[in-house]
Amino acid sequence: MTKNVRVRFAPSPTGPLHIGGVRTALFNYLFAKKHNGEFILRIEDTDQNRYVEGAEQYIIDALNWCKMPFDEGPGKNEKFGPYRQSERKDLYKQYADKLIASGNAYYAFDIPEALDFHRKDHEAKGKTFIYNWHNRLKLSNSLSLSADDVKAKLDAGEDYVIRFKSPQDETLNLKDIIRGDIKIDTNILDDKVLFKSDGMPTYHLANIVDDHLMDITHVIRGEEWLPSLALHYQLYTAFGWKTPEFAHLPLILKPTGKGKLSKRDGDKLGFPVFPLEWKDPKTAEISRGYKEDGYFPEAMVNFLAFLGWNPGTEQEIFNLDELINAFELDRVNKSGARFDPDKTKWFNHHYMQEQDNDDLACALKEERHELYEIDTNYISMVIDLVKERATFVSDFWDLSHFFFKAPTSYDEKATKKAIKEGTADILNQVISIINDTKDFSSENLQTVVKGWITENEIAFGKVMMPLRLALVGALQGPDVFDIMFMIGKNETIKRIENIIKTI
């Protein structure tokens, strides 16, 4: 690449950042870092009617949580600032005027009622109304009106928009890194509005101008912007600017594989579609986030990377540095990527095993106030015993509560299976063995108890099942001797005595 790579993530602050947006940010970030380039955050807030308070900060917080901090953006290393389009609005009008001066754009004075009439008239005839070469000379614009009429309307302060003048009878040959060569017949293109009557540019004009002024070399964005590619190419040509390279990412599909993933799918199937929890400032409605649901950022980044991209190998677990090294845009698929909630849990389970036990112990203490006065080192040791069965921090209590308090009841099915005639006598003998055991390590307990079982030719299940039931309250949990060692001799004997009284 002859020029330093510069990519931008340009979300609109209209609400929480969907994981599809996070995936777009991730692919931009990976590409930039792979080529020692810059990852820029630009806030595209030209549509002030849809602006939502707090959304911009949410976007920044989400990127930081995913460990994808931007190199340039609002309040950070503002080489090409400002990075909010609403703060650049005075800039865009001069570029719209340049397009008018070069004949690539024109003023349109059509009132909404007139356009609505034309749309309905076309619909009644089974047609689609398109404002372009075939009818623009019949409408109210600077192409159909005299220069004096145009000047009079402008001087009178009449509302107008500025439209791009799409060419007639041409074929555009476009290139997309992911989708290859694309041919577009200009006759089917409409004359898009570039500048609105409220004095703000549309996305089309603003993003082209900003990408040029910010030296963006690659535009990596969602598939939904593919229909705009022809206009954007034409705008670069009209300005006489070098066109960046484009790459349009595939959609993230519902778990069924049909249709684009939405918040409704998450609500229906019980998984979040936002990186962080979001509280709507207007309705106070709270939407779940991956962070608050117990996912690690490493897991989220890993599973998002595989939504549309594959490394060409069997490897599935990648940390961020490994993703940067492996990532290439030409390995991104054209077809949509099905979202699999179970696979996201699989990734989280993997990253759970890599977490520091002391950190997990602190996180568990925050969730369970009854552990507040329990020594963190003890909790950390417990976590080490049950960690391989956990996917979320919230799983730890169900997996380990018996390390912290004795069972107050016993699972009914487990009781029928474990408690037989003579069980009380066997457990009393186990108590005697435990009392005589000075070395209460799990290894020694296993040697002593299993040796006694073998020596007396007792079926292992007759001892081990009721012993586990006494300690846990169910036939589950880690190694019985690890449990005995952790809770100590006195507590072990007390629990065995309790179940003897019960049976």
From TrEMBL:
GO-annotated molecular function: ATP binding; glutamate-tRNA ligase activity; tRNA binding; zinc ion binding
Subcellular location: Cytoplasm
Protein's job: Catalyzes the attachment of glutamate to tRNA(Glu) in a two-step reaction: glutamate is first activated by ATP to form Glu-AMP and then transferred to the acceptor end of tRNA(Glu).
Family annotation (CDD domains): GluRS_core
Span of the annotated motif 'HIGH' region: 11-21
GO terms for cellular component: cytosol
Short motif 'KMSKS' region, span: 260-264
Organism encoding this protein: Algibacter mikhailovii
Any one Pfam family match given in the protein's UniProt record, by short name: Anticodon_2
NCBIfam families with a match to the protein in the record: gltX_bact
Swiss-Prot/TrEMBL keywords: Aminoacyl-tRNA synthetase, ATP-binding, Cytoplasm, Ligase, Nucleotide-binding, Protein biosynthesis
Alphabetized InterPro entries for the sequence: aa-tRNA-synth_I_cd-bd (IPR045462), aa-tRNA-synth_I_codon-bd_sub2 (IPR020751), aa-tRNA-synth_I_CS (IPR001412), aa_tRNA-synth_I_cd-bd_sf (IPR008925), Glu-tRNA-ligase_bac/mito (IPR004527), Glu/Gln-tRNA-synth (IPR000924), Glu/Gln-tRNA-synth_Ib_cat-dom (IPR020058), Glu_tRNA_lig_a-bdl (IPR020061)
Superkingdom of origin organism: Bacteria
Any one biological process term the GO annotation gives: glutamyl-tRNA aminoacylation
Class of enzymatic activity (EC top level): ligase
EC assignment: 6.1.1.17
Gene3D superfamilies attached to this UniProt entry: 1.10.10.350, Glutamyl-trna Synthetase, Domain 2 (1.10.1160.10), Glutamyl-tRNA Synthetase, Domain 3 (3.90.800.10), HUPs (3.40.50.620)
Domain Aminoacyl-tRNA synthetase class I anticodon-binding: 374-500
Complexes and interactors: Monomer.
Record's protein name: Glutamate--tRNA ligase
